[in-house]
Amino acid sequence: MGRCQRWFLKAAEQGDAEGQYCLATAYYRGEGVPKEKEQGEKWLRKAAAQGHLEAQVALSLYGVDVLYEQEEEARDTNSGPDDSDPPSPAPIPGV
């Protein structure tokens, strides 16, 4: 892990949304850390949950496939008349 990424991790673990976002992008790009989409998504979601706008936009743009998969899994476990409806697209914050 690179020196900058260590600081991002330290900040992220303490709940800093900007640190979480920076760590997420490092994991997505493989900059100073192994390229791991799962870790990137984990930290991106934490930052977005705290209202970090760039993280929310990134999830909307890059996380659509993940959101779609989660909706499909939920649909598979639930029964009812709405099971055949396609998933709604993820909203883009600020638009």
What this model shows, in words?
The protein has 95 residues and is mainly alpha-helical. It has one domain (3-79). It is 64% helix and 0% strand. Helix 1 (3-13) packs across helix 2 (17-29) and helix 3 packs across helix 4 (53-62). Residues 64-69 have low confidence and may be disordered.
Secondary structure blueprint with pairings:
Blueprint: H1 3-13, H2 17-29, H3 37-49, H4 53-62, H5 64-77
Helix pairs in contact: 1-2, 2-3, 3-4
In short:
The protein is mostly helical and 95 residues long.
Provide keyphrases for this structure.
mainly alpha; 5 helices
Query: Strand-and-helix sequence, N→C?
Result: HHHHH
DSSP summary: helix tally: 5
Low-confidence stretches: 64-69
- Which whole number gives the mean pLDDT? 79
Helix content: 55-70%
Which overall shape is indicated by the principal axes computed on the Cα atoms?
A: globular
Strand content: under 5%
